[in-house]
Amino acid sequence: MKVRVYAPPLADPSAIDADGMVELPDGATLGELLALLRVPLRPLAALLCMVNWRRASLRTTLRDGDSVGFVGLLPGG
């Protein structure tokens, strides 16, 4: 299956193809995707992660065509 990934700044982009897609085995979870992308502090990153524009956990099962993105934190105050 393929999912579209809007990777966070510290992710390893080598698994993302030119179209922004990552190929994963059927039944893969968000945690497995974050491990593939070598995202540091995966439990913390998952707090800022969205699957199909909804909050998700590391155990969320991904499906073909899903979009995975990260909420950016804005500095300031």
List keywords for this structure.
single chain, 77 residues, Ubiquitin-like (UB roll), 21% strand
Please mark out the parts with pLDDT under 50 across 5 or more consecutive residues, or reply none. Answer: none
Helical fraction equals 10-25%
Instruction: Using the coordinates above, name the CATH class.
Output: Alpha Beta
Major sheet: size, sense and barrel closure?
A: 5 strands, mixed
Structure annotation, total helices: 2
Structure overview:
- The protein has 77 residues and is an alpha+beta fold.
- The protein has one domain (2-70): Roll (Ubiquitin-like (UB roll)).
- Helices cover 17% and strands 21% of the residues.
- It contains two helices and five strands; from the N terminus they run ββααβββ.
- Strands 2-1-5-3-4 form a five-stranded mixed sheet.
- Strand 3 (49-51) and strand 4 form a beta hairpin.
- It is globular.
- The chain starts with a strand and ends in a 7-residue tail after the last strand.
- The mean pLDDT is 86.
Short recap of the structure:
The protein is α+β, with helices and mostly antiparallel strands.
Topology:
Blueprint: E1 2-5, E2 21-23, H1 30-36, H2 42-47, E3 49-51, E4 54-55, E5 67-70
Parallel strand pairs: 1-5
Antiparallel strand pairs: 1-2, 3-4, 3-5
